[in-house]
Amino acid sequence: MMTVLPIVDISGLFSEALEDRRRVGEDLGAACRGTGFFYLTGHGIPPPLVANVFEAAATFFALDETRKHALAMRRMRNNRGYFEVAEEQLDPNAPPDRKEGFNIGLELLPADPEFDKPFRGENAWPDLPGWRTLMLDYFDRCWALGRVLHRGFSLDLGLDEMFFEDKLDAPIATLRLLRYPPAAAAGSPDGAPGAGEHTDYGNVTILAVDGVAGLQLQTRSGDWIDAPSIPDAFICNIGDCLMRWTNDVYVSTPHRVAVPKQERKSIAFFLDPNPDAVVVPVLGGEEALRRYPPTTGAAYLRSRLDPTYKTA
Ligand SMILES: O=C(O)CCC(=O)C(=O)O
Ligand SMILES: [Fe+2]
């Protein structure tokens, strides 16, 4: 299939030969320094698992409003649970987003010393058989994949291959199920986007899409292009936190979702660092440090999330 976005086969990252891993690191680096958006193949996550997650998401979104609202993100205070259409507004200059969604975060036991900290705490779970187990399985697979990707980034950036490991071992990560109602069923045409123009906040996003068009991104030259789905490939993009961490060498790219002609679903996994991870530029020396003083994973994410919700 023809696309202007690079397709990176990362199977070499699982090789025992350093030269194989380096080669993938170079491919990833080229993509991250260029458009900051790329397709991921050779990732090792079984397509039937992704299909099951899409199916389970559909089952959830089909529940009646009362059951969905019982799990509302507004009640959770840790960026987890259900949000309804028009609750989120990614572009402050556009109407609220025409999408509903469900967020799942890192699952910790209540006895965990971290449990009461910001972004931690419990997940909201619908009462659907097998649902929680499936979502946590997929969450863990995406988390592991995100860490493997960071080994490739590290090789490309000239860091120790394991540099990010201890910064991603208890991450602020969010698995987000998304549903965009079709244009015809979406009520009055108020110019609302599916998802307003934005950049992602974290390090890297691993996105599965269902084949219905909608996702668009802005290339370095300023043109908006479609990112069509490629079967069994993930769409991957760099977020603002990794852009800052690399002193803007890796690029976080603006993107948006147009209101689809038919219902569209996607599953995004956002990998942000550990809350306490110190985010300080790894390239660019003193000058970079003046521009981007040290912050932490939690402080950075908090500063970005607050303006996004109408009802905090
Ligand atoms: O649904 C999509 O294709 C993209 C969603 C997105 O960009 C986001 O939730 O950050
Ligand atoms: Fe996004």
Automatic annotation (TrEMBL):
Tell me the GO molecular function terms: 2-oxoglutarate oxygenase/decarboxylase (ethylene-forming) activity; metal ion binding
**A single GO BP:** ethylene biosynthetic process
* Source superkingdom: Bacteria
Asked if the Swiss-Prot or TrEMBL record annotates the protein with the keyword Amino-acid biosynthesis, the reply is: no
Name what cofactor the protein needs.
Answer: Fe(2+)
**Pathway involvement of the protein, from the record:** Alkene biosynthesis; ethylene biosynthesis via 2-oxoglutarate
What EC identifiers does the entry list?
1.13.12.19, 1.14.20.7
UniProt entry keywords in alphabetical sequence? Ethylene biosynthesis, Iron, Metal-binding, Oxidoreductase
The chemistry this enzyme catalyses reads: L-arginine + 2-oxoglutarate + O2 = guanidine + L-glutamate 5-semialdehyde + succinate + CO2; 2-oxoglutarate + O2 + 2 H(+) = ethene + 3 CO2 + H2O
The keyword Nucleus is assigned to this record: no
| Location of the Fe2OG dioxygenase domain | 171-273
Please give the PROSITE patterns that the UniProt record associates with this protein: FE2OG_OXY
> Per the similarity annotation, which family is this?
Belongs to the iron/ascorbate-dependent oxidoreductase family.
PANTHER family, A to Z: 2-OXOGLUTARATE (2OG) AND FE(II)-DEPENDENT OXYGENASE SUPERFAMILY PROTEIN-RELATED
* Protein name in UniProt: 2-oxoglutarate-dependent ethylene/succinate-forming enzyme
Q: Identify the species of origin.
A: Lichenicola cladoniae
